[in-house]
Structure formats: structure tokens, C-alpha cells
Amino acid sequence: MQEQVIKNDNDFTEDKGLQFVKSFLMDNLQLSGLYCFGIHHKNKMYSNAISGEVKTRQHTHYYLLVYTIHSKENAVADLSDIIKKKSKGQYTVTLFIHKATTVRQLTAESKYFYYHAMHKGINLYEHDVVPPCIAFEQEPQRNVKHIKAYWHNRNRVSEVFLQSQGMVDGIDTEPVQEAMMQVAMENTALALINTFLGYRPIHFNLGYLFDICSLFCTLVREFFPRNSQEEIKMFELLSKHISKLRSAHLGPMDFVSTELLQRRCRLFHEKATVLIESEIERLEKLAKENKQQSKNESDGNE
Hints:
Distance between the termini: 45 Å
Order of helices and strands: HEEHEHEHHHHHH
Strand order of the largest sheet: 3-2-1-4
Helix content: 40-55%
CATH superfamily of the largest domain: Nucleotidyltransferases  domain 2
Mean pLDDT: 88
Structural class: alpha+beta
Low-confidence stretches: 1-11
């Protein structure tokens, strides 16, 4: 189930798409630093049965850590949309935007993501005068105790909302049920991201969180694909802003879609639970091995 983005050193370079994205971001943000730490390529084929013409077009998705000198409201969503439109869908991005000064005082656990994104990704840009200033004395290690605590809290929220949603009845309650499922999926996605990347998002749109999850696992593509119009419509039921309930008209709705969505949410949560707990187990084992290795080295120096 787990899918890691693995590229050879020779392949992980600044390509034409990255040059396009980099140029756009430099024109629209005051950058302190810019790093690409994930790339997904996908070929799309278009065929015309009448003319016999077949075209193949490559779509590329980039994961970018962006440090800005000044913050810009709604930058993640707005800039991502513009890049997609300007490239006519050829390039899309998931932006991890942070003001440079806010990430200087991070805990060792929080530094894990930034260290790997900056040191193992592509350094696209660093400001000559005000580059990102994060002190890395050594490679940060994961704190498994913190990971387990965060997972426990997010999982509890997800379970309560999914269980409560299952007890809601009535043909006019679909929007309420969908909002409850959204909260459950948001918390499940946050737990996945923290467990596998060591990152705590500051932008919480469900589509954005799902895009991040697609960097390290296939769950989103399995249960919530967004390719066909029908799939997009299904996802929109789940991702409507909860504030819309303030003016929602609760009449008879398409309960079949809601039931299908319910099954997918439950399966997504079940599969995510298996992935997260397996990863925590792996991290615990790794921590013990590292501790034993340090002890052996210490004993050998005495």
C-alpha cells in the first residue's frame, strides 16, 4: 500500500516544469527559499476514433516547500490554481508555504520534515540576504511518543464522527452526514501526514490534505479518485465547506451517493489505521536499534 517517490539522482533535477513553476512563484511571492521534494509524473492519452489520431500528454505534479519573507493571504489555493491554468493542466503543485521567520524556532520533531525537504530535495532558490535560517545541528530524529499521541487524538476524533454519522437518520440529513465525514477524513489525513512526513499542515482544505497523502501512499487514489466528472462530484460532496450548513436547505437528497461515500470513508479510515500503526511499529523498532547502536558505540569507547 505504501508508495514512496523514489528517483535516481540523475533524474531528480530542475526540469522544464520546475523552471516554469519557479519563475511564476518568484514573480508572485517574495521568496526566502524554494525546494522541491516530490515529483509525480502521469501520462494521459487522448484518442480520436474518427481521425484515428492518438496523443499522449504528460502531467507533472510537484511538491514544493516555500519560504516567504512576507505572508500572503490564501496563497496556497490561489497560486496552485493559477499555475494549473497557466500551464493548461500540464503542471500542478502542492505548496507548503511558510513565512521564513516562523520556522526558526522549531522542536527537533518539527525539524524532521524541513531537514529532509531541504537537504534531500532540489534547492531551487535561496535568497542571498535573507535565506531560510533553520539550525540543523544534526539529522533530526522522530519522537515516536509524540507521533503515537497525535495519532491517538486524531483517530479518536475520526472514530467518534464516523460512528455518530452512522446513527444519523432521515432523508434530509445528507449534508449533515457529509460534513461529519469530512471532519473524520480531515483528521485521518492529518494523522497520515504527521506519521509519514513529520509535518503539521497549516492549510486544511481536504483536497490539499489528500494531495499531500498521495506523496507517500495510494489510499486517496483508491478511495477518492478525482479523474472523471462522477468522481469529482463524489469528492465535492465530501469536501464542501462546513460553513455551508448555515444556509443549507435540508430537503430530500441523493442518499445513494451519501451511502457510497460512507462506505468509502470507513474503508479509508480502516486502511489508514493499518498503515499508520505499521509505520509507528517500524519507527519504534528503528528507535530501539539506534539506541542499542549508540550504547554499543559508547561502551566501545570506554
